[in-house]
Queue: 2 jobs
Job 1
Amino acid sequence: MFTKDITTDEITSIKDYEKLLVSRLGNDADYDIVWGNSYYHVLGVSWTMFDIKDWLDSLIYDQDYVVKIKLISKDSDGSYNVDQRINLATEFVINRYSNPVIISSFITSQLIEIYNMFNNHNQNIYILIEFTELIRLK
């Protein structure tokens, strides 16, 4: 399933995505949207917008994904500690054609909020992107 204009001018929330689907598929359309496979991508400590662009370029054509952004750290042995992850933002929807600048700005603004909340600029924080396929069933 692929939807145009997802997270291109602003972050597309789940509610906005649902409204977009209803307007494009019609209120009486016989369909269900289910979550498919989940995948993960880790952004390093010094990530840039180009890392987001590379990640988007690696996505499957004609596929929408719901995204969860979480903060994680590394254990003393160098492995990622995913058991103590912190949700960074509410879920939103993307696809291969989403705007990497919008996504980067969104993640950065959420990070600043977290840093200010805890008065901490820990340089050992990584960003875990969990992205799950959205599949249309008839």
Job 2
Amino acid sequence: MKEFFDCTVGKDGKLPVGIANQIKEIVKNRAGKFLRFILTNEKTRTIPQNSWFHVVVKIISDFLRQQAKDQGNEKYYEINEETTKIWIKQTFLGYEEIKGERHLRKSRNLKTFEMAELWELLQKYFSPMGLNIPDPNQQGFIKDKVKTNEYQR
């Protein structure tokens, strides 16, 4: 059994009543049994980070496709956002074991700091090739690109 509770601790230092009651019920129903509590302030990636990930995938996909065309690669058309996203995950996120099987890590499960690390890795990887991947915190860039759908699917 795994239970996850996301909440903000109140200014009084207490959990929200609903969550506190759920936890009490779980503990009560498992008297005498082992439980592990893990407390963390790590957050899963945010919606703006997810939007930015799709912007970056589009930027990289366009760059790689054009690069393949310029090099005369007849299969340049196979480079698209879908294949680029899979390549990024394979190359930079890797695999995880789930129930004894290896699975490609999903970007939705990344923490906010892991997404920041991914941007940095992508910037370092593509910079020598001449592709500048803007920082997601670069003022106005993400908001403008996402708002105008310039880099959206």
